[in-house]
Amino acid sequence: MTLILAVAMERPRARTPWLAASVFTFVGLLRMRLAQPGPSAFSRERMDSVLAMCTAALLVGTVLAQRGLQPDPPVACDSCVAWNGPQLPFKVFGNTFFVGTAGLSSVLITSPGGLVLLDGALPQSAPEIDAHIRALGFRTEDVRLILVSHVHFDHVGGIHALQALSGARVVASASASQALARGNLLPDDPQFGLGLTSTRFPAVDGAASVKDGETVRVGTLAVTAHLTPGHTPGSTTWTWNSCEGARCVNVVYADSLNAVSADGFRFTGDATHGSIEASFRKSISIVERLPCEILITVHPEFSQVFEKLAQRIQHPETNPFVNAGACRAYAASARATLDGRVMAERSGKAR
Questions:
Q1: Residue-by-residue DSSP string for 91-138
Q2: Which of 50, 148, 230, 256 is least buried, going by the fewest C-beta atoms within 10 A?
Q3: In what order do the strands lie in the sheet with 169-173?
Q4: Segment 104-115, tens digit of pLDDT
Q5: How are beta strands 208-210 and 215-218 bridged, if at all?
Q6: What is the largest CA-CA distance in the chain?
Q7: How far apart are CA 343 and CA 191, in angstroms?
């Protein structure tokens, strides 16, 4: 019974069928032994006692299984398979770890007082993120805060399941908190026109709202919110300090600054809404001016996360993630994209 309980606690959801098979195989062997002639070490009363203990162990294992991660149904999209591709977790610097997938970032920050998780990727990404946290030697149940960049399904889809497992407090901008509660975009989101069926995600109730410049804490770990609207009205960039020995660096988890939208939306405004060009440009400038030695973006390709990882593997004496110009380069690229979009809108060439 001790072995059964140990296995159940190690991987409860995956082991429940194993538990059932083990219990009933063991009981079956006992019954076969009792049916044979000759002396037996087990009386029928003793076998009933063993059966009762095994049944109790199976029930405990079932309860433990129900406590494991319960992922929400997967979503389908043109990029979802590639986005959710396998990717080994790894340390970026100090207490900062990448626990996301091949196309979607999720970042773990560790501290003696608990863990902080940034973003949850797709609904089908939640089991991967959970497994990555555990592979690094931590427990998802120890996540105390889940912080949100923006509320598109490819970044918040897994939060419902991860929050249910960990009991963590979810923190987002005021706009994002409203969208989380409804499980879909608000009408002022540039991608709202894609339709509710294409943009919905598992709703998350009770998300706390954070203000621009506000710092949230888990013990001594402090993470600061910077509102950077544009890609969505509630987009938020997060910063913190990460140390290795005596060396400390400023880490920036930058939200998307990409001027993409549903067909018909105008960042320069139209009869249905005012222009958000100026606020978008302000957001780009905010990221550009942040103290920034390490940049991680919500889509890893925007900050060459895996290219830097490959360089570090080839040259372990260096850490390419440390790059004081990374935020400026990211902002310059985003500004060029917005310039092109504004020009297309003003010339009537935007979709």
A1: EEETTEEE---SSS--EEE--TT-EEEE--BSGGGHHHHHHHHHHTT-
A2: 50
A3: 90-93, 96-98, 107-109, 115-118, 143-147, 169-173, 208-210
A4: 999 999 999 999
A5: unpaired
A6: 96
A7: 19
- Residue 119 and residue 107 in contact, taking contact as beta carbons nearer than 8 Å: yes
The letter for the amino acid at 169 is R
Closest CA to 318 of 331, 308, 326, 332: 308
- E strand spans, the chain: 90-93, 96-98, 107-109, 115-118, 143-147, 169-173, 208-210, 215-218, 221-227, 236-244, 247-254, 294-297
In this structure, the number of other CB atoms found within 10 A of the CB of residue 109 comes to 25
Which residue type, as a one-letter code, is found at position 242? S
Residue 284's identity, in one-letter code, is: I
Tokens, residue 345: 């809108």
Those residues whose C-beta lies under 8 Å from the C-beta of residue 228, and which sit 6 or more positions away, are: 235, 236, 237, 254, 255, 257, 283, 284, 286, 287
Judge if pTM exceeds 0.85. no
User: The tokens 């991860």 sit on which residue?
Assistant: 162
